[in-house]
Structures are given as C-alpha cells and as structure tokens.
Task: inverse folding
C-alpha cells in the first residue's frame, strides 16, 4: 500500500527555521517525483515545487522559488520542505504528494497525498 | 495564483445533479488533461477523476467529468450528504511549467 506520512504540526516564531518531512512507503521512493502543495487557511491548493528523490533534481513554482528549499534523503525514503526564516504568512497546511508519471508529462497527476502538516507562525 | 477559475460554491438537495465548472486557458486545460480532487472537511485532497473520465477504486459513478476547449466541468448526480466537500480541478500548465489547481468549489447539500 502506497503511503506518504508527514511529520506533525509545528509552531514557530517569525524568523525561525523549520524543516518538515514526508516519508514514503509501499513503492519505489526513488522513481517517483514528490511534490509539495500549500493550503493557506480557508484557501485553495498551490503547487510549490517538486523533487525526484533518485537524483534530487528539484523544480520550484516561480511563486515559491527562493522562499523554500525542497530536498530528499533517498536512504530513508523521505522528502523535506524547509524554511530558513519563517514569516507569519507561511502559516498554512502543507501536503506532500506523489506524481504518478514523468515530470510535466501529458496527464501526469498527484495520485497519493500525505495527511498534511500544519505550520503555525506566530509571535 | 490560481489560473483555473471555479465558482466558490454550489449547492443542491439530495438526489439532485450539480455541476462545477473550471475555466482555464490554451496552455493548461486547452492542451492537457484535467484531473479532479475531492477534499473532505479536515482531510487531505483525494484523487476523484483522472485521465479522461477514470475513477479510482471506490469512487462512485455518480461523479463524471467533461471538457470542451479551455473549460472543464465535474458533475455529481444523485447528490448525497457525504458529497459535501471542496472540489478542485487541476492540470499541467505548459507555459508556466507548473501544475496548477483551480480556485476550489465548496459543495453544500441542503
């Protein structure tokens, strides 16, 4: 059974750093892209970026380039999303999701999703 | 940031048929497959319809989709209380080289 299990909720102060995780199981972690999706309170889904754990090839949405860092450790089947200096506007639910086909290929979609990690940034 | 536009909300009574529209452009809906996700309250999104009208195991055939030009739509027939959720369309955008989601539609069963 394919599963993506994310780390638990986090509370941080503005300016602090944070790294959240997404552990994959039940499939070959190194051969599927893992994406990150933001959902701000009461808002819709926004694609942030994506990583191929096999070689750590990473792409970012222009809206998130330079704002976050996506990484992966294939030895433990885990992808990460990190911030070096959080802002209050980073408060949101963050989901990881598996891409079922090659990146940017016709019909590619996110087929399995993690349960989400709630990040709260408040002074 | 959403480049796919959906109505904020739709509602219907049990048994009714409702439709959700998703409007995009030639670089996303016009040239790529539209997939649909259902997000139940407090839950992660779940794939609902994908790749030309396919439904994952467990999704009832009350859910169907269609596409014409740069617009797509999701239909729910025989509306049930458990269909109350947020629904999102999604597609690849060839110009932006990003995956884009719709603005989301909240379905309410009256």
Result:
């Amino acid at each position: 059974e394919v599963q993506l299990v994310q780390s638990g909720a986090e509370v941080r102060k503005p300016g602090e750093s944070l790294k959240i995780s997404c552990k994959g199981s039940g499939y070959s972690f190194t051969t599927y892209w893992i994406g990150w999706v933001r959902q701000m309170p009461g808002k819709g889904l926004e694609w942030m970026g994506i990583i191929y754990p096999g070689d750590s090839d990473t792409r970012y949405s222009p809206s998130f380039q330079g704002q976050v860092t996506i990484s992966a450790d294939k030895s433990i089947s885990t992808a990460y999303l990190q911030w070096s200096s959080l802002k209050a506007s980073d408060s949101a639910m963050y989901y990881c999701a598996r891409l079922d086909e090659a990146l940017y290929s016709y019909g590619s979609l996110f087929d399995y999703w993690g349960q989400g990690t709630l990040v709260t940034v408040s002074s | 940031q959403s480049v796919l536009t959906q109505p904020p909300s739709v509602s219907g009574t049990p048994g009714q048929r409702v439709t959700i529209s998703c409007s995009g452009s030639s670089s996303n809906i016009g040239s790529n497959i539209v997939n649909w996700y259902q997000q139940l309250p407090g839950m992660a999104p779940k794939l609902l319809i994908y790749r030309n009208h396919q439904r994952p195991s467990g999704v009832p055939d009350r859910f169907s989709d269609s596409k014409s030009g740069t617009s797509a739509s999701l239909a729910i027939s025989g509306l049930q209380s458990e269909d109350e959720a947020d629904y999102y369309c999604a597609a690849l955008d060839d110009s932006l080289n990003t995956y884009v989601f719709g603005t989301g539609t909240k379905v309410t069963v009256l």
About this structure: Chain B touches chain A through 25 residues (CB under 8 Å). Chain B is about 0% helix and 45% strand. The two ends of chain B are 31 Å apart (CA to CA). The longest strand of chain B covers residues 85-93.
